[in-house]
Write a structure and sequence with these properties.
single chain; 141 residues; alpha+beta; five-stranded antiparallel sheet; 5 helices; elongated
Length: 141
C-alpha cells in the first residue's frame, strides 16, 4: 500500500511529461500523412538592414500638409474654383488661401522622373480624390 501511492505519482508525472508538445518535424508530419510545414524565412543581417521601401520625397511641406502635384493653383474666388467648391459643397474655405484643382500625390519616383509637369504644392485637405485640395501653398522642390 505504501509502495503503490508513490508509484502512482511517478506514473502520473511520467504521463504528464510525455504529453508536453515538442517541435514537430516535417518527417513526423509526412509519416502521419500530413503535408510538410512551409519553410521559415530567416533574414540575414544584410537583408534585415535593407530598406523595404524607397525613402520618399524630402520633407518640403510643414506638418499637416501633403506634397501634391496640382494642375492649377487658384484663389477660392476664381470662377472655375467656385464651381468645383459649390459642386462638392465644401464650406469654410479661407478666401485668402489657395486651392489646388486636380491634384495627385507627389512621390519620390514621380518627382524624380519629372511626372509633375504642373505645380507642386503643399495642401492640407483633399476632396473627391484630389479634384479639389484646400489650404495649398506652392512648394519649391
Amino acid at each position: 500500500m505504501k509502495f503503490s501511492a508513490p508509484l502512482a505519482l511517478i506514473l502520473a508525472a511520467a504521463t504528464a511529461v510525455s504529453a508536453i508538445p515538442t517541435a514537430e518535424t516535417n518527417a513526423d508530419r509526412l509519416a502521419r500523412g500530413l503535408p510538410p510545414m512551409p519553410p521559415i524565412k530567416r533574414a540575414t543581417k544584410v537583408e534585415a538592414a535593407r530598406r523595404r521601401a524607397p525613402s520618399g520625397v524630402p520633407d518640403v511641406c510643414s506638418s499637416g500638409t501633403n506634397l501634391k502635384c496640382c494642375n492649377n493653383l487658384k484663389s477660392p474666388s476664381d470662377s472655375s474654383a467656385k464651381v468645383i467648391i459649390a459642386l462638392l459643397q465644401v464650406k469654410n474655405i479661407d478666401p485668402n488661401s489657395t486651392v489646388g484643382l486636380t491634384c495627385a500625390p507627389l512621390t519620390n519616383i514621380g518627382y524624380n522622373a519629372g511626372v509633375c509637369k504642373s505645380k507642386p504644392a503643399c495642401c492640407e485637405k483633399d476632396y473627391l480624390g484630389g479634384v479639389l485640395s484646400t489650404g495649398c501653398t506652392a512648394a519649391s522642390v
